[in-house]
Amino acid sequence: MKKIMIKDMPNNIGETVKIGAWLANKRSSGKLAFLQLRDGSGFAQGVVVKEEVGEELFAVAKGMTQETSLYVIGEVKADDRSSFGAELNVTGIEVISAANDYPITPKEHGTEFLMDNRHLWLRSRKQHAIMKVRNEIIRATYEFFNENGFTKMDPPILTGSSPEGTSELFHTKYFDEDAFLSQSGQLYMEAAAMALGKVFSFGPTFRAEKSKTRRHLIEFWMIEPEMAFVEHDESLEVQEQYVSHIVQSVLKNCKLDLERLGRDTSKLENVKAPFPRISYDEAIEFLHEQGFDDIQWGDDFGAPHETAIANHYDKPVFITCYPIGIKPFYMQPHPERDDVVLCADLIAPEGYGEIIGGSERIYDYELMKSRLEEHNLSLDAYAWYLDLCKQGAVPHSGFGLGLERTVAWISGTEHIREAIPFPRLLNRLYP
Ligand code: ATP
Ligand code: MG
Ligand code: MG
Ligand code: MG
């Protein structure tokens, strides 16, 4: 007998098949039992008809508890009522193991309870759909960069120094030396770009963020491309092409998942390059016009500011050329102004906030050295990075996209904790 996955049922209409599954939910009457089956590849209904299967098997079907694992055997039937298009007419059940008092029932549960049970919560339909969207974004990321001549290079996670300050760093020991968990692989990716031209990384990053917001995780995954011979404006073009590609890929390949999430896809269809661009100066002016008097030129934006700006557009919007004082040391100064740098943040629509931070990087040795000194960073710790400026350095640009912010936005998930399988949050290290 053919062993298949639920997702392949529509291609096996009329066949008798065997599927390994869990019982997600169940309804039954005296004559019929409806089994909601889940195998990770999808969800499907299995129908057990007492008259067809007999007393004994029907009693087994009716007696199974939620999340019991089983092999189910049956004939695949076309079913037009479900968007999935198929259901299983069950003829055999082999229980593998029972589940005892499974805590997540179809009723509503509080967030803390669900977070305590994250190891089980992942089995729910909504979480399944979010993880499928996450996976599609990762797949489309590899596709985009590989098709555009980038090489994947992996920066280290244990590092001796870090690009941005020390307040948010996780400190650890590296035998007798001090070490830190990576906050960003950028500096290493710059070195990689000088070797391979166009590179990208995808890996975990760690920030001891003391803030409790719906956009910040302690551990999150970042995609960090870095490109030699690419200037600021050209980098923005890559960014808008990349973000368009992942949004359009999810729309195309995760239709059922977006439907299950209740995502208003009309808000995503329009996400195609080019994206609007406004300067930091214009953004400040706009906010003042909107009545925000809590922000002055020279301040970084908070979530309400980003949301007010984003609400003005139906696509992600670039805010370019921030004041030099609120950005890291390595950003290239504006050629005509000494108070701003060649950088941009990409702000997602619908209040999901900053999804990308990027910039052109300094490559002049003397300028880099003086910027490091102005930031009181140790020239010893950054010796190898500074050395890059002396070895045939070229203009180059790069950016970092936060995967979970992007998952939250595209899937329409209110809080970032649901955008990663096992979120690390301020007060949560388990499960
Ligand atoms: P924010 O202003 O929202 O705190 P940031 O400017 O500190 O973000 P960057 O250092 O520019 O962030 O990092 C690049 C990207 O990584 C951000 O645009 C965002 O998508 C993501 N990111 C940053 N911090 C976090 C976090 N704590 N949790 C999840 N994603 C994050
Ligand atoms: Mg931050
Ligand atoms: Mg920011
Ligand atoms: Mg940023």
TrEMBL record:
<comment type="similarity">
    <text>Belongs to the class-II aminoacyl-tRNA synthetase family.</text>
</comment>
<keyword id="KW-0963">Cytoplasm</keyword>
<dbReference type="InterPro" id="IPR004364">
    <property type="entry name" value="Aa-tRNA-synt_II"/>
</dbReference>
<keyword id="KW-0030">Aminoacyl-tRNA synthetase</keyword>
<protein>
    <recommendedName>
        <fullName>Asparagine--tRNA ligase</fullName>
        <ecNumber>6.1.1.22</ecNumber>
    </recommendedName>
</protein>
<keyword id="KW-0547">Nucleotide-binding</keyword>
<dbReference type="InterPro" id="IPR006195">
    <property type="entry name" value="aa-tRNA-synth_II"/>
</dbReference>
<dbReference type="InterPro" id="IPR012340">
    <property type="entry name" value="NA-bd_OB-fold"/>
</dbReference>
<feature type="domain" description="Aminoacyl-transfer RNA synthetases class-II family profile">
    <location>
        <begin position="131"/>
        <end position="431"/>
    </location>
</feature>
<keyword id="KW-0067">ATP-binding</keyword>
<comment type="subunit">
    <text>Homodimer.</text>
</comment>
<dbReference type="Pfam" id="PF00152">
    <property type="entry name" value="tRNA-synt_2"/>
</dbReference>
<dbReference type="InterPro" id="IPR002312">
    <property type="entry name" value="Asp/Asn-tRNA-synth_IIb"/>
</dbReference>
<dbReference type="InterPro" id="IPR004522">
    <property type="entry name" value="Asn-tRNA-ligase"/>
</dbReference>
<keyword id="KW-0436">Ligase</keyword>
<dbReference type="InterPro" id="IPR004365">
    <property type="entry name" value="NA-bd_OB_tRNA"/>
</dbReference>
<keyword id="KW-0648">Protein biosynthesis</keyword>
<dbReference type="GO" id="GO:0004816">
    <property type="term" value="F:asparagine-tRNA ligase activity"/>
</dbReference>
<dbReference type="Pfam" id="PF01336">
    <property type="entry name" value="tRNA_anti-codon"/>
</dbReference>
<dbReference type="InterPro" id="IPR045864">
    <property type="entry name" value="aa-tRNA-synth_II/BPL/LPL"/>
</dbReference>
